[in-house]
Amino acid sequence: MAENTPIQSVASPILCNPYVEPRDHWLYERESGVAKQAGVRRPAGYYYKDERTGSAQRGLFADEQFDDLPLVNLLRDDVRRWREADYRGASTVTRDLLRHWSRTDRARRLFFCQREAVETIIYLAEMRNTGKTATLRFKPGLSDEDLSRLIRGERPSFRATGGGGNSDWFPRLVDQQADQSMIGLRRLGCKMATGSGKTVVMSMLIAWTFCNRALNPESKEFPNAVLVLCPNLTVKERLQVLRTEHPKNYYSEFDIVPVKHRDLMSRGKVVVENWHSLAPASANSEGGQSFRVVDKGAEDPLAFAERVLRELDGLDRLPLMVLNDEGHHCWRPRISDDSEELYPDVDDEEAEEAKV
């Protein structure tokens, strides 16, 4: 094997069962390329490029560095303990759904990565953000203090690095608005491999919120309206299966909702839109046509919201859950005077698309 590619092959590359939590992974020696089993789950993290220097280029991964993702690893441990405690503290219908999804006798078993993604979102949204820590009966690795800091956009107490070891970086659970009079936008993300079933995960989250809201109609904790945003018309057509009224909806096709709860799904509404619908309306258009003599001025925020949410009865169904499919194409520029210097190689049009 060439000197600059010393990776040695292994007899059985796949070590883990896709339906249970990973317990092992391969590790490669940097110099020899020999593989050995780590005996534990691979910690969440990422590699970033570092400067190549001299003969170091010949070593395996010598031109890359690794950063862990401490928030993800803390949450993994917390969610594992919550799962082992049979989801203590969650609502009755939430526990019904989580148990239903983990059944081993399902005709279509759900991948562990799908279940863990949904468990993490529910753990944060239903348990931690609502102050139910006392019901967990264990001390979370992500403390209430750190959670509050992350929601406020402040630095947590645990070490967090990113962007190639930048110690000034820290994760946030809320986007602080440039206009401080506006409520911060809470974002929770799931990073999953291509082909692992993200559409199923979206259907699970929709089922969770619709079933809970149907049993608690006055609650504002669980939205009964979902806006799904996608990158193009082809994906928009594919995601129509998330509509509860679709003849091949995933809630039935993949047995996402137990039969006893399926009638609850009709009380919520899902709308699937191409992200281009979020572009501001033209000041020179009327009735879908453009006219030079028409000048209605810029679309104000209220008119924008009512137009985008027209199928959801405008603002009457708030609060709203927004699911951003293909969200890995998005990023948020830093809110500062020198934000244009943050991504010097990105043109204005690409930057606008990425902010959606």
Structure description:
- It contains nine helices and eleven strands.
- It is an alpha/beta fold.
- Among the domains are: 26-64, no CATH class; 223-333 and 343-356, no CATH class.
- The strands form five sheets. A three-stranded parallel beta sheet has the order 8-7-11. It has a two-stranded antiparallel ribbon with strand order 1-2. It has a two-stranded antiparallel sheet with strand order 3-4.
- β9 and β10 form a beta hairpin.
- α1 crosses α3 and α3 (112-128) runs parallel beside α5.
- The longest helix is centred in the middle third of the chain and has 18 residues, at 198-215.
- The protein is globular.
- It starts with 25 loop residues before the first strand and ends with a helix.
- The model is unreliable at 337-344 (pLDDT under 50).
